[in-house]
Structures are given as C-alpha cells and as structure tokens.
Amino acid sequence: MITFNKPYLTGKETEYIKDAVSNLKISGDGVYTKKCHKYFEDTFGFKKVLLTTSCTDALEMAAILLDIKEGDEVIAPSYTFVSTVNAFMLRGAKIVFIDSANDNPNMDIELIEKAITPKTKVILPVHYAGIACDMDRIMEIASKHNLFVVEDAAQAIDSYYKGKPLGSIGHLAAFSFHETKNIISGEGGMLVINDDRFAKRAEIIREKGTNRSAFFRGEVDKYGWVDIGSSFLPSDIIAAFLYAQVENLEVIQKRRKEIWNIYNTKLSKLTAKGVRIPFLPDFATNNAHMYYLVCNSIDERTKLISKLKEKEIHAVFHYLSLHNSPFYKDKHSGNILPNTDHYSDCLLRLPMYFELKNSEVEYISEIINDFYNA
Ligand SMILES: *Cc1c(COP(=O)(O)O)cnc(C)c1O
Predict the structure, then answer these.
(1) pLDDT of 284-324, one tens digit each?
(2) pLDDT per residue over 24-71, tens digit each?
C-alpha cells in the first residue's frame, strides 16, 4: 500500500528528546524552544517568533492580539482548513468568505475590496499548497483600508513571494508543524510577529495572560496576571523533536521538490484532458508541500480515487467549502463561490512524503495517465 502521508524522522528526534528530558526543563521555553526560535528568526529573517502547540493556537493568538470583537469582520477564503477562521469565530467575528482564484485555490485578490465594509478588521490570506498569494496587492489593500493581514502560512515553510519568505509579510503569520506538513513535531505551530506593536503582548497571551516571559528574562521582579491569554506554548520535548527536523530542512525540501517535479513532468500532459495541475504564479516559489490535480468533475475524481485504491494507492481530497459547512451555511451571506465549490469537488492530493520512492511516484503517475487514456 502506498499511503498518502508518512511522517519522516531525520534520526535525531529521540536523541534530542532524551536530552530535553535530562535537562529537567521540559515545560515551555526550554533550551530547544530557544534553539528553534533562533533558527527561524535567523534563517527566515522573521522579526520575532513564538512556538505554539499548533497553527490553530497561533491563529487564536493572532485573533486575541488583534482585539477581534463581536461583530468584527474577517475576509477569508472558503477553501481552507477550519482553523483559519474558527480562531476568529471564537472571538465573535463574522467571517466574510470570498471565492478562490480561477487558476489556483488561493483567495481571488480581485474580490477583496468588494468584501470590505466599515466593520472589516482583518484579511486572512492562506498560502495554499505553500504557493504564495499576491502579498503586495493584499498589503496595499490592507494599508488603504487600515486593515490587518494575518498570513495562514500553515503549509508555507520555506516558500517565498518575490524573494521574501512567506510568513514575513503580513502583520502576523501562523505556521503548522503537524505531521502532514513539510517539517513536523507531531502537533506543533508557530506565530510570527512582524509588527513590533504586538511583540510584548504576544508573549503574555501565550503565557496564560501573565508576564512570566519578561520575569524569566529579569525584566520584572515578579510576574502576575496582566491580560487575557491561554497556555499556547509547547513543552520543550516537542521543540526538541522540531529542532531535529529544522536541522534537516534543506535535505527534506530537496527531496520533496524532486518528487514534486517527477509528478509534474509525468502528469503535465493531462492538461490536454482538461485536468489541471498546480499553477505557480511568477512571484511565487514552490516548497513542494503538496502535489494535486483538479479533475473535471466530482464523479471523475471519485472514479480516480477508486482506481488508485484498487492499485493500493491512497490519494485524498480535502476542504469541504466552509461557507457550505453545517456550522456556517446559515451564517453565510448566500454569495455563490463557484471556484471554491469546484476545488472542493474536484481537487485530489497525491501521496507526497520524503520516503516516497521515485519508482512509486512513477507508478502512481502511470496509473493516473492510464485512467485518463482508457
Ligand atoms: C494544517 C493547517 C492548519 C492547522 O494546523 P494545526 O497545526 O493542525 O493547527 C491551518 N491552516 C491550514 C491552511 C493548514 O493546512
């Protein structure tokens, strides 16, 4: 069976975990958390980062930091993971879903301004498959209307927009290290703070609303309750796992890109059959988070999934449109989002992980080509 995902272990994970345990500082912000923070700040030039227990937590921190209140509006794509918007719903926001672009699942930039009202507070671009949204345009619109931008960069580690790392452009950004992402810690995430105004408060929110981080740095002589917050920081054991991964980021990325390129070469002829392959705008790089196809119809996709399953290949689809979800459909404006619905019905993700062999990628591609040539 070729599974859809297999977490890749670099080999150092358990060694670093043992070391973290023997340091006897296994709660948050220990040695490995600091190493990870330094790595991400140095490697990607992020102004300030804070590891969290998930990308979901990082997004929830963002919503608290931006003081989202009942009635505030947030503009987001409907074709995304629940957490992107759920974090803002928790603070009482109304989500204004806009459609995906025609040529890739990222939000359609042309629809943002029309969705802005006096209540709009935030634009939430999601870099789907690690491929950048047009951030210059988004930042321009945000600045014109005095809005904040939070990048959902869950899938976007080591990916770039016009040479700038994704996650470094919006006021805030959230990454995921869930075991399905490029670098992993089982569950895990990171908040990036690019706007200094939020740096101090982010630490407090992450530490249950206390100024404990400042206390540990010796900046205050006692710590106490100074704001709202929660426990968003991971144990140093999780950071130890993650550190083994970041040390191997280049190796991991190189292999994932090789796999991605084989798929792309082998499957590019399918465009003649109406099937769409990932589209990379000129301003974006590819971090090989995902390889996907957009089939012609839901029926075609269902048949292709069964064909692959017959050959013991596990391919999956995802993102049921959020505007049609049981939780949100009665709250949605009624706007029809045809591209979102199309991706939701027709997008198929192919197996993609470090240890996938070239021969397996070729085999999967062959089965798919045979399906379309039959
Ligand atoms: C994976 C993912 C998340 C959630 O990440 P967690 O770390 O599991 O909370 C959020 N948004 C997008 C786009 C994702 O792909």
Answers:
(1) 999 999 999 999 999 999 999 999 999 999 999 999 999 99
(2) 989 999 999 999 999 999 999 999 999 999 999 999 999 999 999 999
- Give, in words, the CATH class of 13-246: alpha beta
What pLDDT, on a 0 to 100 scale, did the predictor assign at position 314? 98
| Fold classification of 249-373 (topology level) | Aspartate Aminotransferase, domain 1 (3.90.1150)
CA distance 40 to 53: 16
Is 52 a pocket residue for ligand 1 (Cβ < 6 Å)? no
Q: Is 53 in the pocket of ligand 1 (CB under 6 A)?
A: no
Distance CA 212, CA 144 (A): 37
Range(s) of the chain covered by CATH 3.90.1150.10 = 249-373
Residue at token pair 């150092």: 12
SS3 category, 99: coil
Any idea which residue has 């939780």 for tokens? 327
Residue nearest to atom 5 of ligand 1 (CA): 55
Q: How confident is the model at residue 197 (pLDDT cuts 50, 70, 90)?
A: very high
Say what angle helices 358-373 and 298-310 make with each other, to 10 degrees. 130
Q: Please identify, by atom number, the ligand 1 atom nearest to the C-alpha of residue 188.
A: 7
* Predicted structure pTM score: 0.97
The secondary structure of residue 97, as a DSSP letter, is E
**Rounded-to-integer distance, Cα 157 and Cα 226, Å:** 33
What's the confidence (pLDDT) of residue 371? 98
Q: How far is CA 169 from CA 132, 163, 174, 193, in A?
A: 11, 11, 12, 10
DSSP string, 133-196: P-HHHHHHHHHHHT-EEEEE-TT-TT-EETTEETTSSSSEEEEE--TTSSS--SS-EEEEE-SG
Query: Where in the chain do CATH 3.40.640.10 domains reside?
Result: 13-246
If one residue of 51, 52, 54, 55 were mutated to test the ligand 1 pocket, choosing by the most ligand atoms within 8 A of its CB, it would be 55
